[in-house]
Structure formats: structure tokens, C-alpha cells
Amino acid sequence: QHLLSPQRAPERFLQIARENLDTLVTEMDELLTRVSSYINIFWSPAAANEDAIKLNETLRTQDKTLEKSLPELQSEAEGMVIEMRNRELSMQEKIAQDELKNAEDLLDKVKKLFGEPSEKNEGLKNEVRDKLA
């Protein structure tokens, strides 16, 4: 009875095997897609570095900084970021805010000294023009 149960039928095993095969094919496609994207990520910097070297050779640049390797450039960039994070910028921010306030005050003075008289002159000019007309 146990061997003849519907759970143990060859058709049932064949159906399960087909479902497993379909699942496996789908998972393999997904894995291939992921691996391809990772390979592209790893090959892209190398290809970009090769293109940069070819471009430098084409341009015949004498600047040795352009011929640095990607790890060297990455370590330099990381060092710059660390240095920027370590700097105290609050004093520079306060100085910049003071300069902005001074510039706004100066603008107000210029408007008061030149803007208002200019508007008055414009009004007088228009009044004289109307009287002459």
C-alpha cells in the first residue's frame, strides 16, 4: 500500500523533478545576472584605467599624477575626505556669516545713498518731460 500511494507515483516524482528543474533554471538565471553585474563592476575600473592610460599616451602628457594606479588614487581621495572631516570649520562658517551680514549692510547703504536719489531724479526727469511736452 505504501509503495502504491499517490505520493509515491512516478508521475508525481516526475512533476516534482520538473518543478525543481524550473526553479533551478530560474535561480541560475538570477545568479548569472548577479555575477555578470559584479564582473562588470570589477572590469569597469580596470577598463577605465586602461582607457586613461591610452588617453594619456595619446595626449603625451608629462604629468605623472595621471599615471597613478586606481588604488593610489582611492587612498589619496580617502585621505582627503578624512582630512576634511577632521578640520574645524565652525570658525570659517562664523567668518562667512559675518562677511555676508557686512555685505548686506553695505548693499542697504548703497541703495539708500544712490538708489533713493536716483529714483527722485527719475521722478523729476519724468515731471520735466511731461511739462515740456
From TrEMBL:
<feature type="coiled-coil region">
    <location>
        <begin position="86"/>
        <end position="113"/>
    </location>
</feature>
<protein>
    <submittedName>
        <fullName>LAMA2 protein</fullName>
    </submittedName>
</protein>
<dbReference type="InterPro" id="IPR009254">
    <property type="entry name" value="Laminin_aI"/>
</dbReference>
<dbReference type="GO" id="GO:0045995">
    <property type="term" value="P:regulation of embryonic development"/>
</dbReference>
<dbReference type="Pfam" id="PF06008">
    <property type="entry name" value="Laminin_I"/>
</dbReference>
<keyword id="KW-0175">Coiled coil</keyword>
<dbReference type="GO" id="GO:0030155">
    <property type="term" value="P:regulation of cell adhesion"/>
</dbReference>
<feature type="domain" description="Laminin alpha">
    <location>
        <begin position="48"/>
        <end position="133"/>
    </location>
</feature>
<dbReference type="GO" id="GO:0005102">
    <property type="term" value="F:signaling receptor binding"/>
</dbReference>
<dbReference type="GO" id="GO:0030334">
    <property type="term" value="P:regulation of cell migration"/>
</dbReference>
